[in-house]
């Protein structure tokens, strides 16, 4: 079943652009990953929030992606740029 993922990130002070650039730079790899149907980055500077919105063919494809991404070191880079724990939500598409 198709899975929608929404991740909300709050950048550390003065790291908004760095985080936005990092996330934008990895989008092509995310979109090319097997099982990814859609991946976008949205931002709202006035709220100091960045949202990742992804659609995956199923939860297994998303789990495989998370394992791969963790090994790539991107999560560590993101952790250096955020002020709060990220909010990660998963929804099944009707």
From TrEMBL:
It holds the Pfam family ABM. It comes from the Bacteria. SUPFAM superfamilies: Dimeric alpha+beta barrel. Residues 6-67 form the ABM domain. This is ABM domain-containing protein. The lineage of its organism: Bacteria, Pseudomonadati, Pseudomonadota, Alphaproteobacteria, Rhodobacterales.
